[in-house]
Amino acid sequence: MAVFNKSDGKPRDRSLPLSRNGAGEGAISIIGPGMRIDGNVDTDGTVRIEGMVTGTVRAAKAVVLGQSGEVSGDIFAHDAMIGGRVKGRVIADNRLELQASCVVEGEIQAPAFHLHLEEGATFNGQIQMKNEDAAQSATATPLRPESKSSADESGDEQRLQPKFSTIG
């Protein structure tokens, strides 16, 4: 629908000017239920996914994957809250929350102190917990459990707590 100027009969532009300073940083994009995107999603703000995305999702602020949302591809975000299904990598620079309703197949990476898994969350894959200290960017050395059991003087077997040692 166009709005016409009374004096010349030509359509007037009634759109508001957009500020380029910080545009998109506070924006929340929504991929609603029933919506399917085949391709990559990139935003300077936050994206909430309730539909399906086949491709890479990148958000400068946050990715919120609702219970009905599905992503077949990688997710890169500052913060990520996963409640739906992901088949791919989830990499959060700051905070990662895997909610009880989520099913994740793939790899997750997040800072150790900001990785939250709710009881009931389903995860099949690898976890890489990043060290908070940026100076220590090396990955953690895998640990191998060494459990021992011994018998006390009465002959009863006593189970000791497992000990961990580094491999290599």
Could you explain how this protein is built, in words?
With about 170 residues, the chain is mostly beta strands. The strands form four sheets. Strands 3, 4, 5, 6, 7, 8, 9, 10, 11, 12, 13, 14 and 15 form a 13-stranded parallel β-sheet that branches. A two-stranded antiparallel ribbon has the order 1-2. Strand 1 and strand 2 form a beta hairpin.
Short key terms for the protein model shown above:
168 residues, mainly beta, 13-stranded parallel sheet, two-stranded antiparallel ribbon, 52% strand, globular, disordered C terminus
Please outline what is shown here.
By secondary structure, the protein is mainly beta.
If you compute it from the alpha carbons, what radius of gyration comes out, rounded to the nearest whole angstrom? 24 Å
Distance between the termini: 71 Å
Strand content: over 45%
The geometry reads as globular
Q: Major β-sheet, in short?
A: 13 strands, parallel
Average pLDDT, all residues: 77
Number of DSSP helical runs: 0
Query: What proportion of the residues is helical, as a percent range?
Result: under 10%
Order of helices and strands: EEEEEEEEEEEEEEEEEEE
Q: How are the elements arranged and paired?
A:
Layout: E1 3-4, E2 11-12, E3 28-31, E4 36-38, E5 41-43, E6 46-49, E7 52-54, E8 57-65, E9 70-72, E10 75-82, E11 85-87, E12 90-98, E13 103-111, E14 115-117, E15 122-130, E16 143-146, E17 149-151, E18 157-159, E19 163-166
Parallel strand pairs: 3-6, 4-7, 5-8, 6-8, 7-9, 8-10, 9-11, 10-12, 11-13, 12-13, 12-14, 13-15
Antiparallel strand pairs: 1-2, 16-19, 17-18
